[in-house]
Write a structure and sequence with these properties.
The complex is a heterodimer of chains A (210) and B (166).
Chain A lengths: L1 H22 L12 E2 L4 E3 L4 E2 L9 E6 L5 H17 L6 E5 L11 H11 L5 E3 L4 H6 L3 E2 L1 E7 L5 E7 L15 H11 L12 E3 L6
Parallel strand pairs in A: 4-5, 5-6
Antiparallel strand pairs in A: 1-9, 2-3, 2-6, 4-8, 7-10, 8-9
Chain B lengths: L1 H21 L3 E4 L1 H8 L6 E7 L4 H16 L5 E7 L6 H11 L5 E5 L8 H4 L6 E2 L1 E6 L4 E6 L4 H11 L4
Parallel strand pairs in B: 1-4, 2-3, 3-4
Antiparallel strand pairs in B: 2-6, 6-7
Helix pairs in contact in B: 3-6
The chains are: A alpha+beta (210), B alpha/beta (166).
Chain lengths: 210, 166
């Protein structure tokens, strides 16, 4: 009896170790273009919870990680409003998510978000990712950081574009490449996105101290 | 290739010559200059930190780099601070900041508004968030990249580990 049980216990141990190793996230970089993005349920500045699933008629979303405190984010506020106003009628509304921990970055508190949304009259929701779980799942690493997702027939959301708004944060009138806009235009037209990944300088995410 | 090396060498010489007098002036460069710096063949550990005057975490760690610059002054370790501020802010913000803080490390400002054209070339692992830091010694084929905040002990350890040893 014992002879049978020892290898069995050994095998179980190995299996357990394997499972534990598999459970350790190996520095998960988050979503890549083509991945399925998870939905979320986060508190908007109006106090209501917002999910992508709430938008029955949307074809996709411009999920934008942005905040109050990063000068790059601030420089892009008006352009985010323009993006939303241009593409919400075409089925791609913008959803802004503030990824920063309000202890690490006090001016990103919920009250400060409410204030900023009011000042700028954001036409889109501005959500707080209090646990930072969504930020981590998406793999956002800076602000602003855009994820354009497209709703699939089965109701899932496929990541179509990850990256920058455009090629010039400092001078809007000198912008030559509207990276995000071109990507969404292509999606709307059913064409391939020529540059589905772009990068820009931005602020780090302010993570909660462990 | 040979031409590039000559250029790199000339660049290094000019940087070295300019150092004692221009330590607090910010030199505006384009990506190709950064690339030349990155290719410098000397047996020197280059510590290149990407920062900006508007970046809180960058400012916080800046004095670690300044301290390292002082500490390793007589050793083949070279600290270079590359500002990502817009070139329009050179006088009003960057030079003012550099003077106020009496920055002694070599100061460059990378005048490239479109991050998408160079971030991947610096390192594909870089997502574009700053601060970011690279350490390299091309003679010894050493290279290290970090996106995010650097702790002082961490910087000290890295320099100790990578600086050329006789």
């Amino acid at each position: 009896m014992k002879r049978v049980r020892i290898p069995f216990a050994y095998a179980m141990c190995l299996l357990l170790v394997g499972l534990l190793l598999a459970a350790i996230p190996a520095a998960d970089p988050g979503y890549q273009v083509g991945d399925t993005a998870r939905d979320f349920k986060l508190k908007n500045v109006d106090g209501k919870m917002v999910s992508m699933a709430d938008y029955k008629d949307a074809k996709g979303f411009i999920v934008t990680f942005t905040c109050n405190t990063c000068p790059y984010s601030v420089a892009y506020e008006d352009r985010l409003i323009e993006l939303h106003n241009k593409f919400a009628p075409k089925g791609y509304p913008l959803i802004a998510i503030n990824p920063n921990d309000s202890k690490a970055s006090p001016k990103d508190s919920f009250a400060d978000m409410q204030k900023r949304a009011k000042e700028k009259k954001f036409p889109f929701p501005y959500l707080q990712d209090e646990t930072q779980d969504i930020t981590r799942a998406y793999g956002a690493s800076r602000t602003p950081h855009i994820y354009v997702v497209q709703k699939q027939q089965d109701g899932t959301y496929k990541v179509a574009y990850i990256g920058a708004v455009d090629d010039n944060s400092r001078e809007p009138d000198k912008v030559q490449k509207k990276y995000a806009e071109e990507a969404i235009e292509a999606l709307v037209a059913g064409k391939n996105i020529s540059q589905p990944n772009t990068k820009a300088i931005g602020c780090t995410i302010k993570w909660r101290e462990a | 290739m040979i031409k590039l090396r000559h250029l790199a060498f000339a660049f290094a010489l000019s940087v070295a010559a300019a150092l004692p007098t221009l330590a607090q002036d910010v030199k505006v460069i384009k990506y190709e200059d950064l690339e030349k710096l990155r290719q410098l063949p000397h047996d020197t550990l280059y510590v290149v930190n990407f920062w900006a005057t508007w970046c809180g975490p960058c400012i916080k760690e800046l004095h670690y780099f300044e301290a390292a610059n002082r500490q390793y002054k007589n050793q083949p370790v070279k600290v270079i601070l590359v500002s990502m501020d817009a070139v329009q802010d050179l006088e009003k913000r960057v030079n003012t900041f550099a003077k106020k803080r009496k920055l002694q490390s070599e100061l460059l400002l990378l005048d490239e508004p479109d991050g998408n054209t160079f971030i991947d070339k610096v390192d594909p692992k870089w997502t574009g968030a700053i601060p970011a830091t690279i350490l390299f010694n091309n003679k010894r084929n050493t290279y290290y990249f970090l996106e995010g905040e650097m702790k002082q002990e961490q910087l000290q350890q890295l320099i100790q580990e990578y600086k050329p040893k006789p």
